[in-house]
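Model it.
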Amino acid sequence: MVMTRRPVVASRWVLHERRERPRRVHQWAAYRSTIVLLDAVLGAGLLFNNYTVSGPLTGGIVLGLLVIAVGSCRRPKVRVEWGSLMVIVTVALYAFLIIESRHNDMPWTQRIAKFVILLGVAIVVAQRRVDYRSMILGACVAIVVNVPLFYAGLATNQYPPYLTGFFGDKNVAGMYYALLGLLALLALPRKWHVPWLVFSLWALYLTGSRTSIAAFLMAVAWYYLRTKVSMTFRFALIAIAFWFLIYVEDNWAQNSVYSDRAGDDQFRVAIEAATAQKVNGTPWFGLGLNQGFVLLGGVRRVFFHDSYDQAFVEGGYPFLWWSLLAFVVLGLGVASSRMDVPFRLLVAEAGIVVILITAWKLGEVFMTTGAFFVLGIAITERFGRPIADPWFGRAGRGKHAWGDLVMRR
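Modeled.
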């Protein structure tokens, strides 16, 4: 009796995998081709933003200088409408800060140098001289690696048991995990969006920063509701969000997760009381740069935990109004009536929400690399227009325009 072999019929799953594998490989190759490695490395430097290199020199300053150096070697890809006016107003503010600091006999050189570098970072990002998507991806890889390095004891642990790592401070870590938790949506494939948001919330829980957790949740709410509600409801949502923040600060401390932080909360209350006293004694033009601190007990010097108060004390109403104009009007577009917000601008606005909320309970948020980075993204997406090639009149052709023209012929 002759045995015949039945043909092996591939399962539907196997056939599906055979068809899908080349498509996935092609998608990965296409995605990888959009990443600029140098810019991704620069983005990873955000992890060391607070790291002290030498004396007053921090990692954020070094990173800002590197971003400006790289951007100055590249041609801009967009023209920012009203960009010149934005720069002029900012430079005028810096001049005012110098004058009023000299009037108050306060040192200003170091702070103004930092502000100029931050302005340069925003300009480079807004003109797209660097690829901000690659920078975001590099930063995301860095903050993911920061978690196992921290728990392996290979990174700093100044606020045990809360996650800090190379950020050095749990509140700084919370701000960047919240900020990159939203900005990563610009760099990651769509199928990774929900897993990344879950990871970000988990990492924020590990930092123990209640303000950053609330900021992240409010930013996610802005991301999902921004295009679905009118301007009137938008202001109502802002009022509700403000009430929610107060509720979080007043009640989460009683939660069992944070119940061991009573001493920390009392310390914060003492700082806020001393800050309010200093704010009440500040004239309209401010007390000068480097005045964003209080003395507890007359001897202990502690920095403000409120960036709005810090802006007012250092530069009076001009500095405070500039901060609100830059981040609330230009960055968040709170007065904009448009409903069809493009995806990239929508994510950038959500990042601005993180900055605005964390600035309420964390000191020195506005004048940081992360804040000016997301501000540059929001400005380029809101006001940026492609630059037409001067020779061929086509946008975005750059130095390859001649080669493309020859190939078409």
